[in-house]
Task: structure prediction
Amino acid sequence: MILHPHLDVNRAGHLTIGGMDTVALAREFGTPAYVMDEDVIRAQCRTYLAACRTHFGADALPAFASKSLSFTEIYRIMAEEGMGIDCVSGGELYTARNAGFPAARIYFHGNNKTERDLADALDMGVGTIVVDNAEELATLGALAAARGVTQSILLRITPGIDPHTHRAIQTGNVDSKFGNAIQTGQALAITRAALATEGVSLLGFHCHIGSQIFEIDPFLEAADGMLRFIAEVKRETGFLATTLNLGGGLGVRYTENDPVIDYAEAIAGIAAAARAAAEKAGVPLPRIILEPGRSIVAAAGITLYTVGGVKEIPGFKNYISVDGGMPDNPRYALYQSVYTALIADRAGEPATYRATLAGRCCESGDLIGEDMAIQPAKRGDVLAVLSTGAYNYAMASNYNRLPRPPVIFVKDGKARVVVRRESYADLVRNDL
Ligand SMILES: *Cc1c(COP(=O)(O)O)cnc(C)c1O
Result:
């Protein structure tokens, strides 16, 4: 096992994913390429579904945060596995519906949905819209009323967890661009507004405190804060929330330094805290929705590149250049995210070399990582970056007119293309 149980080294010394030789996959499909183990994705869905039902109740639902990985086949898999999904744009909604994903199990998010987004969501019968702000509430109400429909909604709430205590948390704090703070009274105000708005039916509340979180405490605090808020709303308005969406955010292993998370245990812990909080607040535990993104798909994926140059600058540093970079993985450039990389041809050998992994863009910040431990490399080697299943393909761009890599799924010893490699013709498709 290398970092994750589905990654290993075969007798040839090559890295394998789901038992398949990555050097052979690179030869067959070309590089750069995203390769994902389908069984790992499905197993994570099942872990979440089973744990949610066991610990929160039979009606609990994990909804895959599809901004982390969005293309037709992933929505088909989520539909087959019985997951809900969360979409954050008209494009994600379109892709999901085009793949046949049931509209009733879609949660539609975004802090600035356009009229067109809202109209599209209403026209496709999206199950739940998570309303972010007062203007959106009024616009949605008017659009729904004009269509003679009533749209189920949740309100996005920021529970105001102190970011100084938990630095990883960046979306649930009072000054977030998302949602309505409990602390300022704005959460209660938008609740009153929603209850008075024609065309919408308020089911309850949503919070999402951040991402790549390993400690369970922030989730417990969030659940506690949200249940106290539900009790306050009941006292102040008489409205009792029947749904509580606690968002996503559980962490994923990017390097050996990251802990191995037992997701079922984490969900059990959050459920126990939510039950205790509900009891203390004197309200029944609502139907619970979770929104995992990263923890469903990140570990399943790797990216394969071909090494070009190896540049040693004596007394300074070493660079290994690959045939991709920030267009297929912008996360180091965006937030200095750390990854594990290895030479797939000699994956069993010790990582005795240190290098900065450089992409091929005309941009000094185009790096996959700095000062990484890796096997000594030479031109033509296949280089693998691990845990790239989330927020890599989904964030990919055509910067420097690099065509986006394909996505290859492996399962039962077979590989299939689920997203084709872009061609140069694709690059000029919309140029007039
Ligand atoms: C990004 C996001 C998620 C998923 O977060 P992960 O860290 O990928 O689990 C869930 N809900 C909302 C509203 C989000 O914006």
About this structure: The two ends are 50 Å apart (CA to CA).
